[in-house]
Amino acid sequence: MDYDSIIIGGGHAGIEASLATARLGFSTLLITQNPDNIGMLSCNPAIGGLSKGNIVREIDALGGEMAKLIDVTMIQYRVLNRSRGPAVQAPRAQADKLAYQVTARSVLENQKNLSIFMDTVTDLLIDEKSGEETGNKVAGVITRRGHRISARTVILAAGTFMEGKIFIGEYYAPQGRLGEEAAIGLGVSLRRLGFPMGRLKTGTPARIAGNSIDFSVMDKQDGEEMRPFSFMGSANIQRISLPCWVTFTTEKTHEIIRANIHRSPLYGGKIIGTGARYCPSIEDKVVRFPQRDRHHVFIEPEGLSTNEMYINGASSSLPEDVQHDFIHSIPGLENAHIVRPGYAVDYDYIDPLDLYPSLESKRLSGFFSAGQSTGSSGYEEAAAQGLLAGINASMKMLGKPPLVLGRAEAYTGVLVDDLTTLGTKEPYRMFTSRAEHRLMLRHDTADTRLTPKGRDVGLIDDERWESFLEKTKTLDVITELIAKRTLNKRSNAAAGTGDAELSCYPPELVERVLLDMKYEGYIEKERRFAAKAAKMDSIKLDPNLDYASILGLSTEAREKLLAVKPLNVGQAARIPGVRQGDVAVLIILANKG
Fold first, then answer.
1. What is the CA radius of gyration of the chain?
2. Looking at the DSSP assignment, which residues form a beta bridge with residue 221?
């Protein structure tokens, strides 16, 4: 079997990567251990959220699939942070988990140039005589059943399965998800090939039967009118909307956890990987925040065809008997039936400092990595990386430069720059606070920022492009009308004329223009800062520079620069430990070159 591109893993990164390469005309093979679990929402049954909703819309603007998948499977929709400024507002939707999986698999199966194959990748094929400047070149994969499948590019999107191990109290097993075998062998092979590897940990809470919950003592959390994530989606989404529910842990909950903390694999030393700082387990919360007498617990439906409910905020790897006791101490869950226990999983990942901003490996040409395999956490972060990896694998095969998004262009740009410049020792999660230009990165402007880039790489078809151009013209007309209305009001002449004309246009477009005009001064200030950063990014550096021999650099800067191998002075300046004096040396060096 010979393919242009092989994608390892059928999670959210793998979906976007395989669709991108196939849609750009390359024969693509998606290898997954179980095709039935393609697109599974392994943890919370939701897409979007603060900054994550922005990423979903950016994926859509570039020509990706995630927004379309949630639009047809959502069972509740809300915009978070409505009480705060527009820069930190974002859409979030509860998903019907099974419907999301079925829809994702159907899209893949009906995509031209894309095939699905059930097996486990255990090693890479290497072309050691490739003559590539970057060294060896990937040539394909080897699977557990002995298949040697050749490819020009390979994208790793293994999620939590690469040498994965799950923990429930004293119980542990080599699995990537509860009941699903880990991908054993690939992590070992990557270490043998010299890749810098590490271990990370994540977890998930128990699932409980909805008909065993007493909702009368909980606060009901209804959704809003459903709106599409996709810029091409129908504004009139008619689907059943299910409520979520809010309750709290109690002091008794905390007492049970504290009395059994020694049985937690997290505190007993069994788990090697570092967990997510910003998404701690319930036992972590109790230990780290002893002054808190309660923590939020959100009860979220898993779908229309199931009775299971997700206990958001109560992730745990404690033994099942302890989970049973502390769950029953939470108001409304006194008689809850646990369908599936919570568990932790630790797994292998590649140090993202070993990747270029294109997500291609620095040591193996044609090999890309995305999602949890690069140290990130979350469906949305994984999907965004998968899309970029798929685009850039395609650009490499076309002999074109990669698509690298700037920090002022997209949350996706912030995500990739943070990973490949700063690295991570814990699962990376996106926040609005990580984006210094967040006022320019509102979720409603993602198409203006990124759809032209999606068109340039070939993922935006003619129909969508014409729609985008028409929308752009409409925004210009609305801007003129609002400016006219403002002038009229100032002169007290025909003040209502502008309002009447504006009523003919979609309210969301009018709101978008009003926000742009309201924050115009702040946005212009951010643009100036971004332009200065862009000048630094435009000063290119040879990634193979021998920094050890460059006079004038500090010892720390030499070490950091050798590890990151920045592609430009702007990226070098963002590396912790690289000082202003070091940056000046690099600018002089680049100008001489």
1. 25
2. 244
581 is written with which tokens? Answer: 């004096």
CA–CA separation, 111 and 96 (whole Å) = 23
Strands 367-369 and 148-156: parallel
Neighbour count for residue 57 (Cβ, 10 Å)? 30
Rounded to an integer, what distance in angstroms lies between the CA atom of residue 405 and that of residue 413? 5
Q: How buried is 110 (Cβ within 10 angstroms: 0-12 exposed, 13-18 middle, 19+ buried)?
A: exposed
- Would you say residue 486 has pLDDT above 80? no
Adjacency order of strands within the sheet including 171-173: 171-173, 165-168, 343-350, 197-204
3-class SS at 238?
coil
Confirm if 268 and 262 have CB atoms less than 8 A apart: yes
Q: What sign does the CA torsion over 589, 590, 592, 593 have?
A: positive
Q: How crowded is the C-beta side of 62, counted as CA atoms within 13 Å? A: 32
Which amino acid is present at 369?
Answer: S
Question: 232: closest CA among 72, 418, 405?
Answer: 72
- The token duo for 392 is 């850039």
Q: What is the pLDDT of residues 382-408, one digit of tens each?
A: 999 999 999 999 999 999 999 999 999
Determine contact, residues 326/318, Cβ cutoff 8 Å: yes
CA distance 68 to 464: 14
Q: Residue 373's closest CA among 157, 228, 100?
A: 157
Q: What is the band of 134 on the pLDDT scale with cuts at 50, 70, 90?
A: very low
Q: How far apart are CA 460 and CA 79, in angstroms?
A: 27
Residue 54 burial (CB < 10 Å; 0-12/13-18/19+)?
A: buried
DSSP 84: S
Mean pLDDT, the chain, whole residue set: 93
163-199, pLDDT tens digit by residue? 999 999 999 999 999 999 999 999 999 999 999 999 9
What are the helix and strand counts (H, E) for the chain? 19, 22
Question: CA 24 to CA 531: how far, in whole Å?
Answer: 31
Q: In this structure, are residues 317 and 265 in contact, taking their beta carbons and an 8 Å threshold?
A: yes
Residues facing residue 138 across a β-bridge: 126
Q: Which amino acid is at 578?
A: V
Tell me the CA end-to-end span of the chain in Å, nearest whole number: 44
Least confident of 150-154, 195-199, 481-485: 481-485
pLDDT of residue 489: 67
- Beta strands 28-32 and 2-8 are parallel
CB neighbours of residue 115 within 10 Å: 16
Residue 206 DSSP class: -
Contact assessment for residue 46 and residue 93, using Cβ atoms and an 8 Å cutoff = yes
| In 429-582, beta strands by DSSP E | none
Can you tell me the distance from the alpha carbon of 371 to that of 297, in angstroms, rounded to the nearest whole number? 27
Residue 577 CB burial class (10 angstroms; 0-12, 13-18, ≥19): middle
CA-CA distance, 304 to 524, in Å (whole number)? 46
Q: One-letter amino acid identity for 344?
A: A
Q: Output the CA torsion sign for 407, 411, 416, 421.
A: positive
The one-letter code for the residue type at 105 is R
How far apart are alpha carbons 415 and 413 in whole angstroms?
5
Please enumerate in sequence order all residues whose Cβ is within 8 A of that of 241, keeping only pairs 6 or more positions apart, or say none: 75, 76, 77, 222, 223, 226
For residue 123, give both structure tokens.
């090693």
This prediction's pTM: 0.94
